[in-house]
Structures are given as structure tokens and as C-alpha cells.
Amino acid sequence: QAVQVPRGPLLGRHVIVTSGPTHEPIDPVRYIANRSSGAQGTAIATALRDLGARVSFVTGPASIAPPEGVDVIRVETAREMREAVSEALPADAAVMAAAVADWRVTNAGARKIKKDGSGKPPALEMTENPDILAWVSGLHKRRPALVVGFAAETHEVIENATAKRQRKGCDWIVANDVSPATGIMGGTENAVTLIRDGGAEEWPRMGKDAVARRLAKEIAEALT
Ligand code: CTP
Ligand code: CA
Hints:
This protein has about 220 residues and is an alpha/beta fold. The protein has one domain (about 15-110, about 130-224): CoaB-like (Rossmann fold, 3-Layer(aba) Sandwich). It has helices at about 40-50, 80-90, 130-135, 155-170, 210-224, and strands at about 15-20, 25, 30, 55-60, 70-75, 95, 105, 125-130, 145-155, 170-175, 190, 190-195, 200, 205. The strands form four sheets. An eight-stranded mixed β-sheet has the order 5-4-1-6-9-10-12-13, sandwiched between helices. Strands 2-3 form a two-stranded antiparallel sheet. A two-stranded antiparallel sheet has the order 7-8. A hairpin with a 2-residue loop joins strand 12 (about 190-195) and strand 13. The longest helix is centred in the C-terminal third of the chain and has 16 residues, at about 210-224. It catalyses: (R)-4'-phosphopantothenate + L-cysteine + CTP = N-[(R)-4-phosphopantothenoyl]-L-cysteine + CMP + diphosphate + H(+); N-[(R)-4-phosphopantothenoyl]-L-cysteine + H(+) = (R)-4'-phosphopantetheine + CO2. Its EC number is 4.1.1.36, 6.3.2.5.
């Protein structure tokens, strides 16, 4: 039987990839979440692995299976995701592809909320979740050499994504238009623009696997 000898331009490199949604509990049976299949993050982890990287794949509850041959760390909430990323450091690069829920419920109950018969919905108190991408980008000694974020936008995509890159302090941002008319959300294709110091590069619409392979190649080039 043939033995797989690991090789590739990312051999000896460690990359953290976040993927999927996070679930923020309201009570034991209900949660708040963003829509995310985890497909793009899973494809990125696979492509990095194929270039020889050791991949820590920090994933929320996604509908598709994680790749083989990566370290899978399963989390539920944004706070757990940040903790898992912290424990996976140090890394040469971090790619934050997760669709993290922006808010969590502060008064989440240990017991199921019951309808009380009045017809009035329960009052949910919410607070903002930690921004994992901004936090990683702002690290000093432990900051990965390359931090890549995503920006899923429905309007003024490039403007919003460029501002997001500035605000969060990441090196690259992968912008995509997720407005319903594009059919990208939940689909197998993606149309992205890679924004970095050199400017914005619009990639043609292609499969999420192809986007992942191209991004992994760019990451390998940046790290060598
Ligand atoms: N992100 C993160 N932690 C959060 C929110 C977002 O790490 N709490 C990351 C995402 O994984 C993505 C990037 O930040 O790489 C941008 O996420 P996005 O939701 O587009 O940006 P927000 O800053 O949350 O802005 P908004 O949702 O208001 O557009
Ligand atoms: Ca958000």
C-alpha cells in the first residue's frame, strides 16, 4: 500500500480556519444564528491541507462534514469559538470564514420558555459577541503573520468590505455579495473580491472549492 508523504508549499505551517455558524442559546431548545452551511470554510481548510498545512478547523454547528486530515474543534457559541482559536494559537495564518452571530441573549434560561397564554412574546436581552477577527488581528506577540477575514455584504460590497478591513485590522478581506439575487447563500458557487494593501482583485464567479484553492495558493505565496 502506498504511503502518503505530506508535501506542498505549506508543509510545516499551521493555519487556523473558523467555519460555519455559531449558535447562541435563547433557552435549551432555541437559538440565534446566521445562515451558514460551512461550505466555504470547509473548502478552504481542505485546500490548505492539500498544500501541506497543519489545519486547526474551528467549526460551529455546520450542516456539512468537516474535512479529513485536519484537527477539528467543534464549538457552539462565539465565546467558545474565540476560546478555541486562542487555544489553537500560535499559527502562521488565520482565516476567519465563520458566520459568527453578532449578538447573544444575556438572559438565556436553563429552562424552556413557555408561552404564557397572553400572546406576548418574551423580552430577550441581547449583548454583542466578541469579534474574533478583530481580536486576533489586534494580538501582538501571538498575532499570526497573515490574518484573513470575510465580508458578506448585501449592498455597497467593496466599500463596506474595505471599511471592515480597516476597522478590524486584518491583512486581507475576502468580500462577497450575498444578496438573495446572486443565489450565493446556500449555493455551491461564490463570487469574491480579494482586498489587500495592493488593491482589490475581483475574481470570476467559480465553485467554492475553486475559490478555496485559489485563496490557499495566495496564502502559500504570502507565507513563503
Ligand atoms: N467575525 C468574527 N467575530 C464576530 C463577527 C465577525 O470573527 N463576532 C468575522 C467573520 O468571521 C468574518 C468577518 O469578521 O471574517 C466579517 O464578518 P461580518 O459579519 O461580515 O462583519 P461584522 O463586523 O459582524 O459586521 P456586520 O455583520 O454588521 O456587517
Ligand atoms: Ca456580523
